[in-house]
Specification:
Chain B: It is a peripheral membrane protein. The complex is a heterodimer. Chain A is α+β, with helices and mostly antiparallel strands. Chain A is built from eleven helices and four strands; from the N terminus they run H-H-E-H-E-H-H-E-H-E-H-H-H-H-H. The chains are: A alpha+beta, B alpha/beta.
Chain lengths: 319, 220
């Protein structure tokens, strides 16, 4: 029995009062943490991280498209050489190609079309008819029944010795390298953003511990263990992290929705086509949403975990 | 329960604030700790609650050497000690109810299991009507009683009170002393640091520990 019970209480009164008690306040007061600034920083960082992650995904997906488009095409160049009829060579080469399994279509570029391809390099207004410009045959390869390119090359050499097959592998490799570089840069930016956010959270936590020094001291005196105190800070920071991540993640979803809307409106314009070639139509798809949700959850958890870790380390150093 | 053996404490490189302090506190005992201002009463209290480490000597509390306690053990030990600070140390963002309930909350108890207990104690110290008030709107006497209630709520084995009647009128001082005597009778060892001779005269059965020039003199 409690010693003060013998002097007072009327149990019924106590129960009446007991119902009036509101829910418990947080031990770390909300206004003692630079909450608003931290929420803004976390929101911006989450938005940028979501942007970086999704741009990496979009570029990676788009690069797969580019490479498969390019891989489904090959080009035959027929060089005019003295003593051979280039028109006959083009015709023979095209026929040899059409006979080869795996080649769906062989389209012969007319002389004027082949010359037009040189215009961007040589400029307009030149008479190219006197120049020995190579002739082009564009092959569409079957994606399902892949042509044996080595065999194709041999067939071509046998049929027309002055023809060269270009399967675009150099270009495909460059595209692959470029896409990998873009994804790596986006991943690096993502990591830097998370690191910057971690620094901001760490600094806000240290400031909060300093501001709440007296509370920490009282909690210690009444017997609170360090993990209990660290958890109180963690709850406060996790709530802030969650709020910031929700705003940032929501902003990223809104951004991609807007980008998709404008990409569709500007389709078929010059700039729109370039953007579409680079990023697709900005549709982030289910994987993009999953990334944003995971990121938001991760940011909230990271904020809470970091603050707990820093407070615990600080208290252990004090101890 | 509590033993000090040749304890000395020095702040920085100055002279020792406490020198060769030796005493024992028995369970269920009652003592006043007194001495002139600056004699080291608060320092001694801080040593007992392990907020300070002695420069030399041995402090043994509840059978354990405080120098060998881990952070967890220190927390565990502090839960058996109730402390009333001279400056109350109430948390301004918590209501009186929450302040008083703090030691139980720290123990991880569900709020529903201690609600009646806390309200009962608040009523006992005359603050039943102020349970929802925040410390910033309370008088010095009310804060004092709230701080006492917080120290008592977990029914500690040892209660330390630093000038608990320093901010209250003589009538309230008598009431507070009565409260400590009740606590003592219920089995808690009590140490009250005070200058107030009239307060000490009201309970002549208490042992007197007098700090002067950094040394402790005991009057049984």
């Amino acid at each position: 029995m409690r010693f003060w019970s013998s002097i007072r209480p009327a149990a019924s009164d106590v129960d009446e009062d007991a119902e009036e008690i509101p829910s418990q306040s947080a031990l770390v007061p909300a206004d003692s943490v630079a909450g608003r600034s931290l929420v803004i920083v976390i929101a911006i960082m989450t938005f940028l991280a979501a942007l970086a992650a999704n741009v990496a995904i979009l570029v990676a997906d788009a690069s797969v498209e580019w490479r498969s488009d390019v891989a489904r095409e090959a080009t035959v160049q027929v060089r005019p050489i003295p003593g051979r009829n280039v028109e006959a060579d083009v015709k023979d080469a095209a026929e040899a190609m059409r006979r080869t399994p795996g080649v769906r279509e062989a389209r012969v570029y007319a002389k004027s079309e082949s010359e037009a391809l040189l215009t961007p390099w040589l400029g307009e207004g030149l008479n190219l008819s006197e120049l020995p410009t190579p002739r082009m045959i564009v092959l569409k390869l079957d994606a399902e029944n892949r042509a044996d390119l080595d065999k194709l090359r041999m067939e071509l050499e046998r049929a027309v010795p002055n023809a060269v097959l270009d399967d675009h592998h150099v270009f495909i490799e460059r595209l692959g390298d470029m896409a990998r570089a873009a994804v790596a840069i986006a991943a690096l930016i993502f990591v830097f953003i998370l690191a910057a956010m971690a620094v901001a959270v760490a600094s806000a936590t240290r400031a909060a511990v300093a501001t709440n020094r007296e509370i920490v001291e009282v909690l210690h005196i009444v017997g609170a263990a360090d993990p209990f105190i660290a958890r109180e800070f963690q709850h406060r920071f996790m709530a802030l992290g969650f709020r910031g991540a929700l705003i940032g993640g929501g902003g990223a979803i809104a951004f991609f929705a807007l980008a998709q809307f404008f990409a569709q409106r500007w389709r078929a314009t010059g700039g729109g086509d370039q953007m579409e070639a680079m990023f697709g139509d900005f549709t982030i798809g289910p994987s993009g949403f999953v990334v944003i949700f995971l990121l938001a959850g991760g940011v909230a958890a990271l904020t809470g975990y970091l603050s707990q870790f820093i407070v615990l380390r600080h208290l252990q150093r004090l101890g | 329960m509590l033993t000090f053996e040749n304890v000395g404490l020095r702040y920085g490189v100055g002279a020792e604030t406490l020198r060769d302090v030796n005493f024992q506190i028995e369970p269920r005992s009652f003592q006043f700790l007194t001495g002139p201002s600056g004699a080291g009463k608060t320092t001694l209290m801080r040593l007992i609650i392990m907020a300070l480490r002695p420069t030399r000597g041995l402090i043994n509390i509840f059978g354990k050497d405080t120098a060998a306690l881990s952070n967890e053990d220190v927390a565990e030990t502090r839960r058996k000690i109730g402390v009333v600070f001279q400056d109350f140390r109430l948390l301004d963002h918590l209501t009186l109810y929450e302040n008083v309930a703090l030691p139980l909350r720290v123990l991880g108890r569900e709020e529903s299991t201690y609600r009646a207990e806390v309200l009962e104690l608040l009523r006992w110290v005359g603050l039943g009507e102020r349970a929802h008030a925040f410390p910033t709107v309370l008088s010095g006497g009310e804060k004092q009683r709230a701080a006492i209630a917080r120290a008592l709520i977990s029914q500690p084995k040892l209660l330390l009170a630093d000038e608990p009647t320093g901010n209250v009128d003589p009538t309230l001082a008598r009431r507070i002393l009565r409260l400590f005597i009740e606590l003592h009778r219920s089995g808690t060892a009590v140490i009250i640091a005070t200058h107030d001779l009239s307060l000490m005269d009201q309970y002549e059965d208490a042992r007197r520990l007098v700090l002067a020039d950094g040394r402790l003199h005991i009057f049984e």
